[in-house]
Amino acid sequence: MYEQEKIKPYNGEGEKGKLVEEMFDNIAETYDMLNHRLSWDIDRGWRRKAIRQLAPYHPQQILDIATGTGDFAILSAQMLKPQALVGADISEGMMQVGRRKVKAAGLDGIISFQKEDCLNLTFPSDTFDAVTAAFGIRNFENLDRGLSEMCRVLKPGGHLAIVELTTPVSFPMKQLFKVYSAIVLPTYGRLVSKDGNAYDYLNKTIAAFPQGEEMMGILARAGFRKTSFRRLTFGICTMYLAEK
Hints:
Blueprint: H1 16-38, H2 42-54, E1 61-65, H3 71-80, E2 84-89, H4 92-104, E3 111-115, E4 128-134, H5 143-153, E5 154-165, H6 173-193, H7 198-208, H8 213-221, E6 225-232, E7 237-243
Parallel strand pairs: 1-2, 1-4, 2-3, 4-5
Antiparallel strand pairs: 5-7, 6-7
Helix pairs in contact: 1-4, 1-6, 2-3, 6-7
């Protein structure tokens, strides 16, 4: 078990997956505003960098895991022009926000949302040309199983693109980020979202989540090859790429 799998958003005996679903339902309406403000809108650029890595392969069937409110899905549809893109998430509250955004963007003919347990996807094996995930896999109750499922539903030769928040490894950003994530992020999140536990939890999972070379090994064990990673914005975010 990885360290972040032990961390739950709320106290109690419930399964982590159920508690994560409850948390994201609670913060769904304020999530986008907080996400962009707390990253100074840099998160949009991180998503674009990942999507550009998929562009040479022209994926036509895309699955966006832990899609949340659909930011990655919308940007992927706009940049990659796929035939169809499915956004899968455990939180119906987050996806309801996503559906409104997709309709406003005129992409409801391409993007659909589906409630899924990301550890037990209902899609057949070898379905998608690309699988993406932004800032969601560290919430998996079982990371190995979730990544194995992502690999299973990819077609042979299909591509994976992940962007995930990580902790910087170099001075002084490492020290600055520690202060920011420990004080600013949870305090501001608590004030705006009214959920005192959510942003404390999210901060703790960033610190505990495997990153860099360790994460590449985890991807390889899940069935991926040609794994690579690139640290973005001094290591605040890391992009992972792989192939089935």
